[in-house]
Design a protein that fits this description.
about 550 residues; Rossmann fold; Hect, E3 ligase catalytic domain fold; 5-stranded mixed β-sheet; 3-stranded mixed β-sheet; flat
Length: about 550
């Protein structure tokens, strides 16, 4: 029988139009088409949106349908409410004359019961092209029953897949591998054993670390960090848009950056590289909670020590407030504690020049005689040569073990081909040896990364400490401030004196110098040929407070 119109409700659900190609049929039926893939991987496996669209357009042409709208989704169907699916439902409600939906197959249209119930109540003709089925109000009960079974099977598949995914993610979390997408500053990479891990993003990682350091100073708000990120041209790797306040707030609160994370209510120690130290992360949390800083309103005058010095009186009572700069008579800068002022305590004022002198005195605690620096540099370089020999020996030993494992795998493969071992034995042994081989490769890589960079960094830090006073005195106030931020983690003013807490490794250096000075005072003959541990100690006596 020759058809001149679209099929509706006939025993043969997929009749083909016999109108010659190129000629217009007598009548056409309005239809919409829906396509979906549940992941990017499905696109690669041949389930792509263009492939589905090509199939449905060809079907519409052959059966006399006019496509009024096209809807596509590329996302999971675990939950109802897919973007284009919801738009399709709304469009069908707004266009009651179009009741035909073209879709590739059952699990492309709906994979949960809610979607099925919603479409079933709309009196639609649903053409499942690959399954050669048209579902409508007049479809046979057997067809509807089989279709319902397919929907339930699709839902069971999704539920089972969800359980397996959750199980796999929990296993990764317990192994110290962050199971989620990489946050800002990290990237997802593949490990030698095929597992996906996170590593520091070489492009955005340093800036993420910079945000932690900036906020920890107490001189920045979230809005000022957003402004800084925009000025630097930093955008989100995911959205490619500028960072927002909420994104930076979540980042600064995320313990993943210090090497820990929470998954399903349990805490784990991550195996990924830390972007910040636990101490810096804790300092940021204190700053964000308002316990360690006071964000002063923006002012035209730049105060050198704002956000650097705590009030010792408030700190003794558990309230860590910062000294705030204030301009008097248009040219004199004084610092005071606003917390003491609000609580009615005697407000202590200290001049900018006096704080400057106190910091110079404190920096002399790091000053090392150049002779001693040269002696230490020689010792570090000699020690590094020993370390290089150790690494070379370790790599040679690991490479020998690798060669042995490769030979074992070759022999094992030949035994399997000749039938001397079973498939199960082959799989068990080969998997075990391949894991060992991957571990050996990681060890070799770790040893190969050992170089002289840490030695050079140590020497640079020693030279910086030795020249700290000269560098400080020769710089302008903004550069002095940056030097102090690099050297000091906390300073406290109390009783007309300032106590400085040095950052690592300068804290250990200051302690070593102090102990060496004390020992030399007890035994003058240990003075290294007459040179002094601290340069300029006699020529620069500690000024009176």
């Amino acid at each position: 029988m020759t058809r001149t119109a679209a099929p509706t409700r006939t025993p043969d659900p997929l009749p083909r139009r016999t109108t010659p190609r190129g000629s217009k049929p007598a009548a056409t039926v309005a239809a919409i088409m829906y396509t979906r893939v549940s992941s990017r991987d499905q696109e690669k496996e041949g389930f792509s949106i263009p492939a589905q669209q090509k199939l449905l357009r060809s079907y519409a042409e052959e059966h006399g349908f006019t496509i009024k709208e096209e809807f596509s989704d590329i996302e999971t169907a675990k939950k109802a409410g897919r973007t284009s699916f919801s738009k399709m439902i709304a469009w069908l409600h707004a266009n009651p004359t179009c009741r035909t939906v073209l879709v590739e197959k059952t699990d492309r249209l709906y994979r949960n019961l809610k979607d099925w119930v919603e479409l079933d109540g709309m009196e639609l003709d649903i053409h499942l092209v690959k399954e050669a089925i048209v579902l409508s109000e007049t479809s046979r009960s057997g067809e509807k029953f089989i279709h319902g079974i397919k929907v339930l099977m699709a839902k069971n598949y999704i539920d089972n897949l969800s359980e397996e995914v959750k199980k796999g993610l929990l296993e990764k979390a317990e192994q110290g591998i962050w199971p989620g997408p990489a946050p800002f500053g990290y990237i997802n990479v593949g490990r030698a054993d095929g597992k996906r891990i996170i590593d520091i993003d070489p492009e955005r990682g340093p800036y993420a670390k910079r945000l932690f350091h900036l906020y920890a100073t107490g001189r920045h708000t979230l809005n000022s960090l957003v402004k800084d990120a925009n000025q630097q041209g930093i955008v989100s790797w995911k959205t490619k848009r500028p960072l927002h306040v909420s994104a930076i707030h979540l980042m600064l609160r995320n313990p993943l950056y210090k090497g820990e994370y929470e998954w399903l209510g349990n805490w784990y120690e991550g195996s990924h590289p830390r972007l910040v130290t636990p101490e810096l992360w804790a300092q940021v949390q204190e700053t964000m909670s308002g316990r360690s800083t006071c964000h002063a309103a923006p002012q035209r005058h730049e105060f050198s020590f704002n956000g650097l010095i705590h009030c010792g009186v408030c700190a003794a009572e558990g309230d860590r407030k910062m000294l705030i700069g204030e301009l008097k008579k248009g040219k004199y800068v004084y610092y005071h504690c606003d917390g003491c002022k609000r609580l009615g305590r005697a407000a202590v004022y200290v001049r900018d020049e006096k704080l400057n002198t106190m910091f110079i005195t404190a920096l002399r605690e790091l000053a090392i005689d150049p002779v001693v620096i040269e002696w230490v540099k020689t010792g570090l370089k000699d020690a590094h040569e020993d370390e290089k020999r150790f690494h070379a020996e370790a790599v040679a030993k690991l490479q020998k073990q690798q060669a042995t494992l490769k030979r074992r795998l070759d022999v094992l493969y030949e035994d399997r081909l000749d039938g001397r071992i079973t498939v199960d034995d082959f799989q068990e042994r080969s998997n075990k040896w391949r894991e060992e081989l991957a571990h050996l490769r990681d060890e070799v890589s770790r040893h190969d990364r050992a170089d002289a960079s840490h030695v050079e960094q140590g020497i640079a830090l020693l030279e910086l400490a030795g020249n700290a006073v000269g560098l400080y005195e020769s710089r302008d106030p903004p550069k002095r401030r940056r030097l102090l931020e690099f050297l000091c983690s906390n300073s406290e003013f109390r009783g007309d004196k300032i106590a400085v807490t040095w950052r690592s490794p300068f804290d250990g250096l200051a302690q070593s110098i102090s102990e060496a000075e004390a020992e030399k005072a007890r035994t003058p003959e240990l003075s290294l040929g007459g040179s002094r541990w601290r340069s300029g100690r006699d020529s620069n006596p500690r000024p009176p407070a």
